Amino acid sequence: MVSIDYTLFIQIVNFLLLIAILHVLLYKPILKIMKERENRLKASEEEVKSLYQTIERKTAEYEEKIRLAKMEAMNQRNEIQKQGALEAQRIIEAAREEIARVTEEFKEKLAKEMEEARNILTAQSRTISFEIAERVLGRTFDAQRI
Questions:
Q1: Each residue of 88-113: pLDDT tens digit?
Q2: Using an 8 Å Cβ cutoff, are 141 and 134 in contact?
Q3: Residue of 27, 110, 122 whose CA lies nearest to 130
Q4: What is the DSSP secondary-structure string of 45-110?
Q5: What pTM did the predictor assign?
């Protein structure tokens, strides 16, 4: 059986002293290590959040740059298409003018050749007419007089 005497008080003092010593030697260092670990985890979480924000920001900047580059490319393509259309229109207009000029030259040349052919045919028909008249009538005519 347990006897309550002065040893009980010594054991209580020993127990309290052991708790105080363990508190100083074991509990405080463990609490300190746990607090440091918690602080490191918080710092790591904040760093991860910061990195995620940086990644999101840089991704947004990159996407914006891509969007602007696409818009610039589209603008340049549209401008080139406009210039190409204007150049094509200019070439077509020049070709039309050239066709009109060549057609006019051809008509003038054709008219000249037709006039020359008429003159030649008129002269030949006149000569042939005189020859036929001479043969039919049996006398000679002076073609210059008539």
A1: 999 999 999 999 999 999 999 999 99
A2: yes
A3: 122
A4: HHHHHHHHHHHHHHHHHHHHHHHHHHHHHHHHHHHHHHHHHHHHHHHHHHHHHHHHHHHHHHHHHH
A5: 0.47
